[in-house]
Design a protein that fits this description.
Layout (H helix, E strand, L loop, with lengths): L1 E11 L4 E7 L2 H8 L5 E8 L1
Antiparallel strand pairs: 1-2, 1-3
Amino acid sequence: MMVHIILKSGFNVQTTENGAWLAAEFELAHVMCENPGLEGQIITVTG
């Protein structure tokens, strides 16, 4: 089993709000945020 959790949080330019985005894939999180300055965290669980 392999689980990937990506959480990107920071300022969202489109909504002018701070928030967090959770996605199963990094690309999806990046597209949803549309802000390369956001911090990203990847948690991988294997076993």
